[in-house]
Recover the amino acids of this structure.
């Protein structure tokens, strides 16, 4: 494993079931906070406790374009499971991309497709952002599913990245 992968992927990996249980817990904690602004503040406070990315990852190769502030997104895939880390100059972006990473770290590729990272919108968290920052978070969501860096173009269906759409039977 490369140094980057070793830093993102824990030596003792949680089971996929544990990853999904943690995601369910995280979403239930957010749902329990009734006011969307209070939810957002909870996410921001959680972000303040996350460690910053190491300097060698805070480079253009890991930077997600589309916003005036800097957002770095690092991902690795090991044995069919994806692992993520993020950081930003803006605590709001650090908060939401950190929640995405926390909720899906260790998920399988198939799990990301079956249960895409779309929980931020129904919880009212994306509405708290300026349009450019919202679009930046959506680029990260698409990158999580398709395994890209978030730097490339994103196929869209209206305002929703194709990677975020649920199959027609689930709509």
């Amino acid at each position: 494993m490369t140094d980057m992968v070793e830093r993102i992927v824990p030596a003792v990996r949680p089971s996929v079931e544990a990853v999904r249980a943690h995601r369910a817990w995280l979403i239930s904690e957010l749902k329990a906070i009734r006011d969307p602004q209070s939810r957002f503040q909870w996410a921001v406070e959680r972000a303040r406790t996350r460690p910053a990315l190491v300097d060698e990852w805070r480079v253009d190769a890991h930077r997600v374009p589309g916003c005036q502030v800097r957002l770095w997104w690092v991902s690795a895939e090991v044995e069919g499971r994806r692992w993520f880390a993020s950081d930003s100059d803006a605590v709001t972006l650090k908060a939401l991309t950190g929640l995405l990473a926390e909720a899906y770290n260790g998920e399988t590729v198939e799990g990301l497709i079956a249960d895409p990272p779309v929980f931020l919108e129904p919880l009212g968290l994306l509405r708290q952002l300026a349009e450019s920052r919202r679009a930046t978070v959506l680029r990260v969501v698409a990158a999580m599913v398709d395994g890209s860096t978030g730097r490339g173009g994103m196929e869209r269906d209206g305002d929703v990245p194709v990677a975020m759409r649920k199959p027609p039977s689930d709509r």
Summary: The helical segments are 3-8, 16-32, 36-48, 91-104, 109-114, 131-146. The mean pLDDT is 84.
